[in-house]
Amino acid sequence: MFNDGIRKPLEVVDIFNNKEGFGPLATLKAYNQQMGLGLDQTNMEYLVAEYKNFDRPPTDVELFMWAQVNSEHCRHHVFNAGWTIDGAPMENSLFEMIKNTHKLSPE
After folding, report:
1. Distance between CA 19 and CA 34 in Å, rounded?
2. What b-and-e string marks burial along 73-87, b requiring 16 or more CB atoms within 10 Å of the CB?
3. Is the pLDDT of residue 100 over 80?
4. Whole-number average pLDDT of the chain
5. Tens of pLDDT along 15-60?
6. Cβ–Cβ contacts within 10 Å for residue 96, how many?
7. What is the Rg, in whole angstroms, of the alpha carbon atoms belonging to the chain?
8. How far apart are CA 71 and CA 60, in angstroms?
9. Cα separation of 86 and 100, whole Å?
10. pTM of the predicted model as reported, rounded to 2 decimal places
């Protein structure tokens, strides 16, 4: 897992090229699928808008970085969600409960 891989040059992911008749969002969706980035629709719409503002396409490194930073693990989407047990909504998210346990027993 920690062996050196084959180094590749930085790749510009030209979502604005429209060479194949796709718009930027469709091009990014295809790249997302091909590379397994796990970006959702909202993420991709945001990225297309931001790179339009930057007036340049993203690089592969930027997209991989965004996918990692925005992953459920890093953003705690799941743990910060509201949840219900036996029909009763819980007062705190799971993440808040974990923090509270640590606060009450920091050792």
Report:
1. 18
2. eeeeeebeeeeeeee
3. yes
4. 87
5. 998 777 789 999 999 999 999 998 989 989 999 999 999 999 999 9
6. 13
7. 19
8. 16
9. 22
10. 0.65
* Residue 3 one-letter amino acid: N
Query: Could you write out the three-class secondary structure of the chain?
Result: CCCCCCCCCCCECCCCCCCCCCCHHHHHHHHHHHHCCCCCHHHHHHHHHHHHHHCCCCEHHHHHHHHHHCCHHHHCCCCCCCCEECCEECCCCHHHHHHHHHHHCCC
**What is the Cα–Cα distance from 85 to 42, expressed in whole angstroms?**
29
Structure tokens at 42: 């909202």
The position carrying tokens 């007036």 is 55
